[in-house]
Sequence to fold (559 residues):
Amino acid sequence: MLNTDDPPATKSASSISPLLLGGLPFIVFALLLLHTAWEKSPTFDEVGYIGLGAYLLESGKWDVPAAASHPPLAYYLHSLPALLYPLDPQHWRYDDSIERDDIRWLRAADVDRGNAILLDPAYDGEFFFFLCRSTSLVFAALLFYLLYHWSIQIQGQFLLALLLLALSPNILAHAALINTDFIFTVTFLLTVYTFRHLLLQPSWRNLSLAGFSLGLALLSKLSALILLPVLGALLLWFIVCARQDNKKNLVTFWPGSNLWTCGIALYATIVLAGFLTLWAGYGFQLTPYLLVVRSQLWDLSGGHQAYLAGAYSTEGWWYYYPVAALIKTPLPTLILAGLGLACLIRRSDRLELGFLLLPPLLLSAVFIVIGSKNIGLRYLLPAYPFLFLVAATALPSLTSTAAWRKYLVGLLCLWYIVGAARIHPHHLAYFNEAIGGPQNGYRYLVDSNLDWGQDLKGLKKYMDERGITRIKLSYFGTVDPALYDLDYDWLPSYMLHRPSDTEVILPTTGLIAISATNLTGVYMDMYGYGKTLYDWLWQRQPIAQIGYSIFIYDLPQPP
Fold:
């Protein structure tokens, strides 16, 4: 019978030590996250999100850029430092001639506003930004708590699941950013976990938690709407696969009904509670959420520039996300997940198998079918905690049999730890050994898979260490280089402001820094430059890679 209760808590050392041991991976994760958050410059979307949550909470208005881009939970969380650094209200004032109901204006991030906040002389903008990123630790602690308890309930141990989480390059990369993807990852898992707990141990408390968790997920990202069919599928799976005593407990909780009507009633109650929580999170307003729906539909309708292994498309490829997952997930994780899946199947625990596989599979299927928004593996980030749980199920059977299997697990864990140490703090640029590591990543994927503007600070550090005072720069990002006192000569870029008096003739010579996304040309034709603008650099060997996302070339002057 499935064990849904953790070992009883006592004050003995034997019961306290597992909690302390479970806290060690979180401490490692927190240290890695904080260091990454400090070392990396603001990424493409972050600049437009700085302080947005504080404005929304204080004004109750949704009439500024980026307010209709995503639901606001991440905005709220990452704006908490604005309580320590009150932002100048001038940053949120716009010309009265602007049509405040223009969906394109409300969706677009105002990078000028974000840069003005970062460069505000009233405080240290770089430190303020670091504090905004650091708030992710609140939800990171919740994520570790969930994996700790769920892994104990599945196999009675937790270390492997927490190790995989603590050193995951994909989780660390996005947890260190002001963005919606990590927050949605946590609330997605929270919703599935609380729904599972409700079905196995029905109570009004667990019902309330499940509804509230769904509401938090809906407040995290529009993609959370996938949880409506996910919870429905899990309910059907429970009705078919659960033990009779579990089914009886559920029917007893909702007297006067059979299993089907009880399940439907619970599902409807959770959905209602979820949308009430969503409504409350918007200050009991409905229009702002509908604007997010409209903006996302508008965004999808136009297609997206995408790049995959030298190919370009605005419609995307059905295999984009499977390929991205295979080359951006550490190989030890994939191997352990395969072994764990085999162990789950051999255990014939169909109920747990459904809870672990259906949510990530349905989520992945949606993005594979939609297909047109092929800009980052981050859209599948909520699948990773489930992958860690599946991988962890392999540990008990492997370590309780032949000695060579114990050595195999140890070797895979050592491989994983070494890989994490080598990539830190460049987690966003992680690619596994199947393609030769992160130095070859740009040949397969760019944008938020590799180069999201996070290494401008690293470029400035590189220049200072070598006494370089000025460089030719083609930067894929939105942060103003003035934040780091970086002097440069502008080269054609996506988003980097072009000085009015600049004339550029390409090819050029001298010391050149170019972002990998610009090098591939994926967005360059949006400015009329064409995707082949920098093909001449592909024939050259860079002298350095800053965080694997900015390439440095030293081309000799013509004779």
In short: Strands lie at 306-308, 311-313, 471-474, 488-490, 510-515, 544-546, 550-555.
